[in-house]
Specification:
Layout (H helix, E strand, L loop, with lengths): L2 H17 L10 E7 L6 H14 L4 E6 L6 H4 L8 H5 L5 H4 L1 E2 L5 E3 L2 H7 L4 H11 L7 E8 L3 H9 L2 E6 L3 H17 L4 E9 L2 H19 L3 E8 L2 H9 L3 H4 L4 H15 L8 H19 L5
Parallel strand pairs: 1-5, 1-6, 2-4, 2-5, 6-7, 7-8
Antiparallel strand pairs: 3-4
């Protein structure tokens, strides 16, 4: 290859990086973990619709279903993926072969049955898996939809990510559990950027009041800064979309819930979050390390 060809190749690569979005640059994708203190608060609905909103803003978005027991992302989209992470761990498929394209413009990775074995791989299997997972670095954003609660798996994903979104509702039990997971995160790692989303609110006043309460308590008693990413109105279109297995942001983009998703999406884009220069493979490596540490301390919260 002569100098002209080399220069042309470099220029094309740089242009591809520019077109792909300056947010990713050379640091790999922005990795956002979406979690909640308890189940049933709309965590997966937020993950899915937020991903669609970001994709419509020109981002390359992958949603990874990291809920061990309840694989709900594909259900929200009305899809039944043929393969998931289990097939990758067994060496039957590569990560590229199990990524599923969707009509909404996002890509998903079904992985509920696979994550339960992820931490039990031997050293060689981990190396091969991490090498394969590097193929996800094409994405601008990877949203990791975890299970609910403070299990070792959930905490390990949160601590390995760049930032975490904690979803709650105005119900007292949900607020208490949201505070509980924030407290647990803070006791293990102080530099995780945590943002709060309050779902199913009756008014903007209620959404702001709940968020301010959690943020104030976290600051006062945990010395932690929790951001207010926004709220989502209680909206009949949400339950209708679940029944129809079609995300509400696609089904009715002008609905109250969809407008809230748009606001959250815009705020998310404006956040100045230091990105860890490790790519998605580094994220999985960190997950392995944190999960191992959790097990070694004998603190299994499941």
């Amino acid at each position: 290859m002569d100098q002209a060809e080399t220069l042309l190749r470099i220029m094309k690569e740089r242009q591809t990086e520019v077109n792909h979005g300056s947010q990713k640059g050379n640091t790999g994708p922005r990795i956002i973990t979406v979690s909640s203190g308890k189940g049933g608060v709309g965590k997966t609905n937020l993950s899915t619709n937020l991903a669609i909103c970001l994709a419509q803003m020109g981002k390359e978005v992958v949603v990874m279903d990291a809920d061990l027991g309840l694989a709900n992302v594909n259900i929200m989209l009305g899809m039944i993926p043929k393969y998931n992470l289990y097939n990758v761990l067994k060496g039957q498929k590569t990560i590229s072969e199990i990524i599923t394209d969707t009509p909404e413009g996002i890509k998903i990775i079904a992985g509920a049955s696979g994550f339960s074995q992820l931490a039990d791989l031997n050293h060689e299997q981990k190396l091969n898996f991490v090498k394969d997972i590097e193929k996800l670095d094409f994405a601008d954003i990877v949203i990791v939809d975890t299970g609910a609660g403070i299990s070792d798996n959930v905490l390990s994903f949160i601590m390995a990510s760049n930032e975490a979104i904690i979803v709650t509702t105005p119900e007292p039990t949900a607020i208490t559990d949201a505070y509980g997971i924030i407290k647990t995160i803070g006791s293990k790692k102080k530099d995780v950027d945590i943002q709060l989303v309050v779902n199913r609110v009756q008014s903007s006043f209620e959404g702001k009041k709940v968020a301010e309460r959690v943020i104030k308590i976290a600051s006062q008693f945990l010395n932690m800064n929790v951001g207010n990413l926004g709220f989502i109105f209680e909206d009949p279109v949400v339950s209708k979309s679940v029944i129809m297995q079609r995300p509400f942001y696609s089904m009715d983009p002008k609905s109250k819930a969809s407008r809230c998703i748009k606001d959250i999406c815009l705020r998310l884009e404006q956040l100045d979050v230091p990105q860890k220069k490790k790519g998605f493979a580094g994220f999985i490596n960190s997950f392995f390390n944190y999960y191992k540490d959790q097990k070694n301390t004998g603190l299994d919260h499941e």
